[in-house]
Write a structure and sequence with these properties.
By secondary structure, the chain is of the alpha+beta class. It contains three helices and 28 strands. Strand 25 and strand 26 form a beta hairpin.
């Protein structure tokens, strides 16, 4: 069996980026001789998942892959090509080390000189003591010798202090230079992986090799850019791709998928659900307990989960393709890849729900003409040629309608006030709760502004689920009369305001409950 010693390059040619990993495809054309051969290909990313490795050969004659495996090894990175002279950093390090060596030698000489001066000073003091004991008196000579020794000791001591301070500085500079040298020229060892394939080819000739595997540390998320220009709304769909797989994706075919290949699912366990009946007590027959609860209006589709970091694909795996080849470096940063763009006719309205917020927001509605589903994601909003903020887009099927909020209007104000009264009728002892809601709408316009503006106001009234409680809208007391009331209890008005205009909208409704109803 023949073994190839030099690695054969096997670049990445196609990538399918999943929600939390990537499926990498590599292709190459090899010129092989007949027989069994062991091929060494790569290098490849060391994070490749071994159990997902798949290799196949395609040729005119029979060709088979007998074995495929990933071999990893710690290999130091090859330094840059050497130049004729060392780099300035290396010369600086060498100069600092020579200066430190000279300073250490000078320090040792100064310490030896100070030791000799100390011995000389001790000999002088001993000589003075012995001479004074023998009756000698030579104060001028003794004083001159002591002064000369002390002066030399002070001079050399100061020089020693300066040398030691400089040695401390040199040690710090040399340490910083070595660290910089390690980062700049002496790269650390890294984990390198190669593919080893054992193939059998019946006849010599070109063979096309295709290898695929999964790799972690790659993900993508959808992002959008919506540009509003009059009645036209342009929506651009991008894919934001992050990858730190250890190898760059250069000029590859990129596919984005919402499939969760690593998500294991189990069928639900069947358990017994027993229902029992019991007689109601006399107190339960006399009263009906009711309560007011908040219920969110939902539509068909997957239930939203707060904090879920995945992609909302409507419960079905979606596949998107980049229209052109892309390059994504392995730097862990976000890279935007354009996917599609479409322009639709936009319908705009200025809406306000005073119970939730007093702001009047411009809501733009359009139709998804991209040809694919718009996944849930953030949207950069552009209006009037400038960036106005960031919103969010919900999952939208192809051809379905979607809406975007392009921010609030600072020249509108809505003030809400509510009153409640409670009464009991005499004969039936029914409890009647009357609620009055007033909405004061104002428009502040600069001088010279013309034209009326329609503000859509929405309020809600309760919806009863039991026959003992009735909810009635008193349209004769509402001012103006509501434009529409849907089955969910949402009341709507279309209020037209001129520049600087003000309007007051009044909503009156009543809740009537039987005497045996409790909790209202």
């Amino acid at each position: 069996m023949t073994t190839e010693s030099r690695p054969i390059p096997l670049p990445v040619t196609a990538v399918t980026c999943l929600e939390d990993r990537a499926h990498v495809e590599r292709t190459a054309t090899l010129d092989l001789e007949a027989g069994v051969r062991r091929l060494r290909l790569g290098p490849v990313g060391a994070l490749a998942v071994d159990r997902t490795l798949h290799a196949e050969l395609t040729s005119d004659s029979p060709a088979t892959v007998l074995d495929a495996r990933i071999v990893r090894e710690w290999t130091p990175r090859a330094p840059a090509a050497p130049a004729e002279d060392d780099s300035a950093l290396r010369r600086r390090t060498h100069a600092l080390e020579e200066e430190r060596l000279a300073a250490e030698q000078r320090r040792d000489r100064l310490r030896a000189r100070l030791d000799l001066l100390g011995l000389l000073s001790a000999d002088l003091l001993r000589e003075i003591g012995e001479g004074a004991g023998l009756g000698e008196s030579d104060g001028a000579r003794w004083g001159g010798e002591l002064d000369r020794v002390d002066a030399e000791r002070d001079t050399h001591g100061e020089e020693l202090r300066l040398i030691e301070a400089r040695l401390t500085e040199l040690t710090a500079e040399i340490g910083a230079a070595h660290r910089a040298l390690d980062l700049a020229e002496e790269e650390p060892a890294e984990l390198v992986a190669h593919l080893e394939l054992t193939v059998e080819v019946s006849a010599a000739g070109p063979v096309r090799l295709r290898v695929s595997h999964l790799t972690p540390c790659a993900l993508w998320r959808p992002a959008y850019r919506a540009v509003l220009d009059g009645d036209a709304l342009t929506v651009e769909t991008d894919a934001v791709v992050w990858q730190r797989t250890g190898e760059d994706w250069s000029d590859v075919r990129l596919t984005l998928s919402t499939a969760r290949s690593a998500l294991a699912t189990d069928p639900p366990r069947l358990t017994e659900d027993r229902l029992t009946l019991k007689e109601r007590t006399a107190a339960e027959r006399r009263t009906i307990d009711v309560e007011v609860r908040e219920e969110e209006i939902t539509t068909l589709g997957p239930a939203a989960v707060d904090g879920l970091p995945g992609v909302d694909d409507g419960g079905e795996a979606r596949v998107l393709h980049a229209p052109a080849r892309v390059s994504v470096p392995s730097d862990g940063r976000a890279h935007r890849v354009p996917l599609s763009s479409f322009t639709t006719v936009a319908s705009s309205e200025y809406a306000c729900s005073p119970e939730l917020s007093p702001l009047v927001t411009q809501v733009v509605r359009g139709e998804n003409l991209s040809g694919h589903a718009l996944l849930a994601g953030p949207v950069d909003l552009v209006r009037g040629g400038g960036f106005t903020g960031r919103g969010s887009l919900d999952f939208t099927a192809p051809g379905a309608a979607f809406e975007l909020a392009f921010g609030s209007r600072d020249d509108h104000r809505v003030v809400r006030s509510a009153e409640e009264s409670r009464d009991t009728t005499g004969l039936t002892q029914r409890t009647v709760v009357t609620r009055t809601v007033r909405l004061h709408v104002s428009r502040f316009s600069p001088p010279g502004e013309r034209g009326d503006r329609v503000i859509v106001l929405r309020e809600r009234i309760p919806v009863s689920e039991v026959s003992a409680v009735e909810v009635r809208l008193r349209e004769e007391e509402c001012s103006p009369a509501p434009g529409a009331v849907d089955a969910e209890g949402i009341v709507r008005w279309d209020v037209s305001l001129p520049p600087g205009g003000r309007r007051t909208v009044t909503l009156v409704y009543e809740l009537s409950a039987a005497a045996k109803v409790a909790g209202l």
